[in-house]
Every structure is written in structure tokens, then in C-alpha cells.
Amino acid sequence: MATRLHLRSVVLGFLVLLSVQSCYSRNIPQVLQSLDERSNSTEPTEPMQGWTDGPNTRGTLDIIWSSVFTIFLCSWSVLCVQVPAVNEDDMVLFRRKLYLFILGIAGPEFTLLLAMGQFMFARRSFKAFRASNRESNRPEWTMNHSFFADMGGFLLKAPDMPAFPIDGLQIHYLVTNGYLEYPTLDKRTIGDRNKTDTLVRVITIFQTLWFTINCIARTTQHLALTTLELTALAFIPCTLATTFCWANKPADVSRPIILEITTPISTILLKAGSAASQPYRNTPLDFVSRQEWSWSLYWQFWRSFLRGMHIIFYPRVRPIPRFPNDNFPEPGPWGLLAFFFFSTGYASIFLAGWNFVFATQKEQTLWRIASLASMAAMVVTWITDTVVFRMLPGIRRETKRSLQRASSGFAPSSSPSSSLSPNLEVEKAVDSQGHDNSHGQTQTKKLWFAQTAVGRRIYRVANFLRNTSSDKDPEYTVPLRALLPVTFSGVLYLICRSYLLVEDFVGLRSLPKSAYDMVDWAGMIPHLCGTV
């Protein structure tokens, strides 16, 4: 009897231990939720398993991290800001870089246009030095030298004026005219001042390459792509083009090099003649290399609004102690064509989300409208700029020449009225020949309207809008027929871009199921799947 009781105690204890182990081996919350389904389980331990691949899914945080990280690298790592003034610290340099970063987030075309213009401007001084150095034994002048000079790496110190920065073309002018000795700065010294983080750029290249391959693979396997990933993908072409244009430009140079001359600036200006007779905008040597064009005029107008928000890009003293970071040199015809290709390509990528699945039908409609509107705004801007600044001036010149050839007695007058505008001269010539007298009546009506109270107010506002520079520099005067459409298109573009950025994150609340699936890389190689 005692033996049987002892045996029963052992069996009972074993069963108690078995039940305790079974309780610990189960997921407690699941046990509470499905107690009836698991009450009959007698499996004491989970089966053992060897090497196992991770789940073929990704989370929302993974999507956000990869996309935001790609956008950040594309917008930050490519930036090469100008050399700060002598009395400025690194924090000022960081703040200006942050301003450009924000503008680059709003539109990477802004950074690309800066890079293309500065690249073409650097090539001008590079070619000038290469042509003049053929006849002398001077050291080589490279694109690194041109970029270093154009970003404010050289300060000119003259006896009669505070030190001010000079670009590559101005250095070439001073050297060829005997005012300045040829700079003996070699390429290695410029490289020592360059603080470009090569590792960051390498990471950017690999990240953008991997991100692009991943997005292409998702589309080939019919996996959903999010709008945030589409936006990050749109940044990549502009980033690669910007990196190419700024490949020879040093980054984060904090101190310039001083170049001294013994000839006073006043003497240099006097010998330059009428070319240097006008007041300067940046430095006394503006007459050598200053060249305003349509986009620099637009930016001068838009910059007045940034001044109202206390975002100052431009130095307030003259001569300027540094070159501003929003310097827009003209990229030339081929550069403009390339910029048009990249900018329209950037806008067209958002149209690829036309048939994406959104959380609501309204969001899909708004995405389509914003994508189309941003593309339309860019096309309208290009058409307006081309017609007003490139086609109309040529048409007016040809019209004037035709009228001069048709009328043997007509010659341009040297009276004050002849300095009004070429268009007005042509119109007066037409009236003098009796071919068309309607414009004279139109001009009379305009003069009458300008003398009224309403007309004076309208003309006052129009004159203010044509030139919003603080000193009313005549070089910054822009026609309203170009300024108003381009400004309207720019505002529309910013509104559409803002909505697209907001929708990128709002749309993550509800995505198609396939958006969380990972790419089956083995499936992209047939022989690995046994389908050969």
C-alpha cells in the first residue's frame, strides 16, 4: 500500500511539473485570449530549428527611415557653400548651409541650377587662364582653382579699399594687366583646405544606387511603392547631376587667402575707361565679370520676401566681404537645356504615382492635380522665360533692322527720346512711315491713364515690382510680362510641392498589403529558383 501511494505521489508530482513547464512555454497573452483552443495541448517543448531566414516583410518605420535618409543625403551631402567672411565663425557657415538645405528640400532643382551656373562660370576663367598660360611658363590653372576663386577663396587687398573677394575672371584680368602676380597656389594646397567628407559622399552614392535598384525591383515584382519612396527617388537624378557639377569645388572652406596689390583700385578703374564708369554692385571689379540674366532677376525679386523673414543671403556692406551663396551665374544655352531636362524629369516622376492606391479617392485626386499642376507651372515658367528674354529681343532687333533697310531716310536719333526703348523706337519708325498709326493712339491712352489717380498708383506699384533691390540697381529691372507669370507659377509650384510632401507622410497611415513585402531577390535570378 505504501508503495502504491509513493508511486502515485511520484506520478502526480511529475504531472504537476509537466503542467508548470507547459504554462511557461506558452505565450501568456495568447493563452488568456484562446484558452479553450490551447487547453488540450500536451506538447512539452517547442521543436528545435536551424538557420532560418527573416520574415519577408518590412514595417512603416523601415519605409520612413530609408526614404528620409536618402532625401537627407541627396540634399545635404552635395552642398558646397561659399567661403565666409574673415570675421565669421563656423556656426554662421552651418546656418547658411542649413538655408540651402531647406531650399533644396523644397526643390532640388534650385541646388542644381546653382551648381550648373557655377560650373559654367568656372569654365570661363579656366579657359581664359589656359589660353594665356600657353605663352608663359606659369603653373597650371585647374578647375579647382576656378571654383576656389569663384567661391571667395581669394581676397584682394588694395591700398585704398578694404579687402574684398575676387573671382577667377577678375584674377585673370588683374594678372594679364600686370596688377597682380600669378597665384602660385597648387592643387594640393586647395585640397588641404577642402573639408569634403569623402565617406559621406560614398555613402550617398551607394545609398542612392541601392534605393534606385530596390524601387525598380519592387515595380518588376508588382509590389506597391509608396509616395514617400517616389519622392526620394525623384531627388536622385538632380543629386547626381549636382555632384558632377560640383566635383571640383571645395567644400566648407572656412578661411580665404589674401592677395595684395600695390596699385590703388581707383587707378585700375580709371585705366579701365568707360567699362568701369558705372557704380558697382558687389565689388569695384564688377565690370570684369558681372552678368545678370533672367533667373538672377527673378531671384532678386523673390529674395526681397526672404529679407522680410530675416533670411539674409546677401551681404549688406560694399564692397562685399564674401560672395553670397545664392549666386546664379548663367549656365549658357547647353546648360539651360540640360537643366530643363533634369527639372522636367524631376517633376514627371511624381506623375508615376498617378495610379497608386491611396487611402481615399480624394487623396488620389489631389495627388494627380498637384503632380500635373507642378509640371504645368514648370512648363509655363520655361515658355515665359524663353519668349520674353530670348525670342522677343531677337524679333525686335530683326524688326528694327527691316525698318531701317526699308526706309532710306530713317536713322536712329541721338535725342533723349531715342534712349527710351528699342521697342518705342520701332513703333515711332512705323508711325513716321505711315504704315501703322494705331500705336500712337495707344500710347496717348496710356499717357492719359498714367495721369489719373488710379493710374499713378498702378504705375507706382508696377515700378516697385520691376525692381525690388534695396539700392534700385538698374541691372535688376525685370519686365512684368515675365515676372508676374513666373512668380505665379513659382507660388503654384511651391504649394503643390508642399502638398506632395505632406501626402508622403499622411498616406503612410493606410497602404496596400504588398507595400510591406520585401523584394524577392532570389526570384530575380531564375537559376537560383530552379526555373532554368
Protein architecture, described:
The protein has 532 residues and is mainly alpha-helical. It has a domain at 60-357 and 511-516. The chain contains 20 helices and three strands. The protein has helices at 2-25, 28-33, 35-38, 60-76, 90-106, 108-133, 143-150, 168-176, 187-193, 198-220, 227-245, 265-272, 286-289, 294-308, 332-351, 361-406, 422-433, 438-450, 453-466, 480-506, and strands at 154-158, 161-165, 257-260. The chain has a three-stranded mixed β-sheet with strand order 2-1-3. Residues 1-39, 410-439 and 527-532 have low confidence and may be disordered.
Summary keywords:
disordered C terminus, globular, 532 residues, 3-stranded mixed beta sheet, mainly alpha, disordered N terminus
Write the layout of secondary structure elements.
Layout: H1 2-25, H2 28-33, H3 35-38, H4 60-76, H5 90-106, H6 108-133, H7 143-150, E1 154-158, E2 161-165, H8 168-176, H9 187-193, H10 198-220, H11 227-245, E3 257-260, H12 265-272, H13 286-289, H14 294-308, H15 332-351, H16 361-406, H17 422-433, H18 438-450, H19 453-466, H20 480-506
Parallel strand pairs: 1-3
Antiparallel strand pairs: 1-2
Keywords: Membrane, Signal, Transmembrane, Transmembrane helix
Transmembrane segments: 63-86, 98-121, 334-358, 365-384
Region (Disordered): 35-54
